[in-house]
Amino acid sequence: MDGDVQTYGSFxxxxxxxGGRIDVVTxxxxxxxWPEHVKAAIVLETYRDGVTVADVARRHEISAPQVQDTASxxxxxMIARIAELYAIEKTIRGKxxxxxxxxxxxxxxxxVEALHPWLEARLQENxxxxxxxxxxxxxxxxxxxLTRFLDDGHLEMDTxxxxxxxxxxxxxxxxxxxxxxxxxxxxxxxxxxxIGTCKLNGVNPEAYTAATLxxxxxxxxxxxxxxxxxxxxVE
Length: 235
Known about the structure:
Layout: E1 23-26, E2 30-33, H1 36-45, H2 53-59, H3 73-92, H4 97-125, H5 131-141, H6 143-146, H7 160-166, H8 173-176, H9 182-200, H10 205-217
Antiparallel strand pairs: 1-2
Helix pairs in contact: 3-4, 4-5, 7-9
């Protein structure tokens, strides 16, 4: 943050489940409350193996002394179930999409299919007005998107890679206000997306862009556009 603006946050437990209240104070008087799904994601991070609350605080620019862990049997079991999925993902990271999909169908799908009714049962056990119930409903409403990775080996289980790739982009947000036009801003976004995708796939963005433009100039067929994707590029 710039100048005298400071960021603080806090977690605390409410009742049987996860309370997860996180307030962010900017400056001496300004206050901003984070969205529910952001709060849930941050608190869930504190339950990952090998991750301390202080680690999470630093990542999200929260004052570590303000952060308190939130013990919860429900969250503990949820994290344990998710850890099983991450353990499977670790064994297939970097493998061919077809292999990733096959392993996920055999090993991950049963775990995910068991997780859905478990969440529904926990929802019935908690007050509909509780923080925990709200977060469970949030996940269940988005179940199709959350489980799409099972049927597509190209996809990662989470969006961490994408989030890390786009983190530098907000630094240019003020500059983007002067793109000149809506079309210019859209072009900027497309180029930024291509460069980010190149980096995610270990491809040199400059080499990829030069080679792709040459192919387009040489009348590369539009129906074969998949061949021009960064993950298919070979220098």
